[in-house]
Amino acid sequence: MRTGGLLVIGLLATAATALLHGCAADGAGGASVASGEEPVAAPLDEPLPSQAPYVVVLGTAQDGGLPHLGCERDCCSEARRDPARARRVTSLLMCDPRDGRRWLFDCTPDLRAQMELGRGHPATREMEGPRPPLLDGLFLTHAHMGHYGGLLELGREAYAVKELPTFVTPRFAAFLRANGPWKLLVEEQRLMLRELDPGIVIELAPDLRVRCFRVPHRDEFSDTVGFLIDGPNRDLLYLPDIDKWEAFDAWTPPDDPANGGIRSIEQAIAAVDIALIDGCFFADGEIAGRSMKEIPHPFIRESLERFAPLPAAEREKLFFTHLNHTNAAATVDSPAWQAVVGAGMHVLDDGRTFGL
Ligand SMILES: [Zn+2]
Ligand SMILES: [Zn+2]
Ligand SMILES: [Zn+2]
Questions:
Q1: Which of 82, 126, 295, 301 could anchor a disulfide with 283, C-beta 3.0 to 4.6 Å?
Q2: What is the pLDDT along the chain (356 residues), one digit of tens a residue?
Q3: How far is the CA of 115 from the centre of ligand 3 (A)?
Q4: Which residues are near ligand 3, the ion (C-beta closer than 5 Å)?
Q5: Under 8 Å CB-to-CB from 70, ≥6 apart: which residues?
Q6: How many folded domains does the chain comprise?
Q7: Looking at the domain assignment, is residue 225 inside a domain?
């Protein structure tokens, strides 16, 4: 139902996710605040409040993951030896402990392992019965394999979801409807496509909203968006893929010049408290034998330079994600990682949580 540009999803799944306190809660975000207390904005590293939504980072790697298929160099052989250095493909799980609902941002080929990481989030989620709903909704940035390849796990051969609200742009929706194997998911009503454009606000709860803006990217099958999550205490930006910050500056989205009010990365950062942004490569030349012009992303080195003039409070919001296996900053404490931290920014880690 769309009313004056406001698409209200409301509490669609509330009935299906009745509160069940005291159910299994493996590592469910330190849910310890007595119910009835006011939501509090916890500092980033503190335990999450049990009465406010939060995000669990399910992955921070580029589409091919880390270790990467067939890579025998140190970047990946080290991660095979020490699983703590492995990273799953970029994705977020957003949870609302107030009613047990949860939503996935990007559906990766690592989905099975990632839903294990998401087990028990939120603690109030009803997971009893033979086939409880896996999620209350999906938000997909674009049709590159790392961001929607996991949809195959949701079909009849595997989890067989039912009527899962799936938020995508109209172009992405048309692609899913028209092309196998995705169209079977649509025809069998496993995915209920909800078209999302900049300017539309998805209201998941009165104090929890999601909107998008378009960015330039290699758009073979779909266009590409970043998401802005507006929570009760904090707002979060999720922008895993973009060609270059300068390409965004020079670009006018074809059908909506306003682009939901976001026309540069700095505007998007200013709109939020936490910004999870494309940090695919650290620097030019890191992929041997392949032109990096074919796969444009902002280099972290360029981002450090671009964001250096921002006030410390703006830089503090920034977390680089979508890290390619070749990215030296993917190794904690490496000189590249130190350069990011020394510039007042962060490299995102799998498993990190953010209160909203
Ligand atoms: Zn990607
Ligand atoms: Zn590698
Ligand atoms: Zn991409």
A1: 301
A2: 333 333 333 333 333 333 222 233 333 333 333 334 443 444 455 566 678 999 999 999 999 999 999 999 999 999 999 999 999 999 999 999 999 999 999 999 999 999 999 999 999 998 787 778 999 999 999 999 999 999 999 999 999 999 999 999 999 999 999 999 999 999 999 999 999 999 999 999 999 999 999 999 999 999 999 999 999 999 999 999 999 999 999 999 988 899 999 999 999 999 999 999 999 999 988 887 777 888 889 999 999 999 999 999 999 999 999 999 999 999 999 999 999 999 999 999 999 999 99
A3: 22
A4: 144, 241
A5: none
A6: 1
A7: yes
Please name the residue that has the structure tokens 């080929």. 109
- 202: domain CATH number is 3.60.15.10
**Is the residue at 32 inside a domain?**
no
| Token pair recorded at residue 264 | 């540069």
Ligand 3: centre distance to CA 1 (Å): 30
> What is the extent of the structural domain holding 210?
46-355
Beta bridge partners of 101: 96
pTM: 0.87
Contact 61, 154 (CB under 8 A): no
CB neighbour list of residue 290: distance below 8 Å, 6 or more residues apart: none
Counting ligands in written order, the one closest to the CA of 90 is 1
Rounded Cα–Cα distance for residues 303 and 317 (Å): 13
Q: Is residue 134 part of a domain?
A: yes
Distance 6 CA to ligand 2 centre (A): 44
Residue 121 falls inside a structural domain: yes
Torsion angle (degrees, nearest 10) of CA 168, 275, 111, 113 = -170
d(CA 75, ligand 2 centre) in Å: 4
